[in-house]
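Design a sequence for this backbone.
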């Protein structure tokens, strides 16, 4: 999904939450700015859905939740985002807001677009890092076969693993899941114009 900054002055988190509770469409909150969400391309929707389905099928019999982009996540800095997929094993924790925000995701997935790639890789990732439970970040390209996985190490550093072929498999031992890139990109068109945003 894509976020576009609304032409409004900076607001507090409380003002954003009041706005979001009454809004007809979803909005993210980044450092005092309200960002309006818009729909994705066919490739974006397929990749997000495929990734959710893979995770959900492998985690369904455990005490794990896998959420679509309808689940909002709150960072430790008070930002609120709608990642394409998020997951955790254990008891989910939420804010008391309407709609509530998830407080303790373990894994977050963002599917890149031309308009959000720099933001997703830098500023948004830095905000996600303020969530104490957050340990795995998957960034998935839609214009090419490319998945970057960032994993939190015990010393606090993040290790990057990149996969670039359909035959590659991403292992996430923390959750006990394996994601084959062929399944992530299943039924996706590799037409640059199809994925352009």
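Sequence:
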């Amino acid at each position: 999904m894509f976020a576009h900054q609304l032409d409004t002055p900076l607001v507090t988190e409380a003002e954003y939450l009041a706005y979001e509770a009454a809004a007809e469409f979803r909005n993210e909150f980044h450092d005092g700015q309200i960002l309006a969400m818009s729909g994705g391309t066919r490739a974006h929707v397929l990749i997000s859905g495929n990734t959710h389905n893979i995770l959900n099928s492998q985690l369904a019999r455990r005490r794990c939740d896998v959420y679509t982009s309808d689940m909002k996540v709150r960072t430790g800095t008070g930002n609120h985002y709608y990642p394409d997929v998020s997951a955790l094993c254990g008891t989910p924790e939420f804010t008391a807001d309407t709609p509530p925000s998830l407080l303790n995701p373990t894994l977050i997935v963002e599917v890149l677009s031309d308009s959000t790639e720099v933001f997703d890789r830098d500023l948004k990732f830095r905000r996600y890092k303020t969530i104490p439970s957050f340990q795995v970040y998957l960034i998935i390209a839609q214009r090419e076969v490319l998945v970057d996985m960032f994993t939190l190490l015990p010393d606090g550093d993040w290790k990057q693993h990149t996969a670039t072929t359909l035959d590659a498999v991403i292992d996430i031992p923390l959750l006990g899941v394996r994601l084959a890139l062929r399944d992530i990109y299943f039924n996706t068109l590799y037409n640059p114009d199809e994925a352009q945003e």
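Confidence is low (pLDDT under 50) at residues 191-197.
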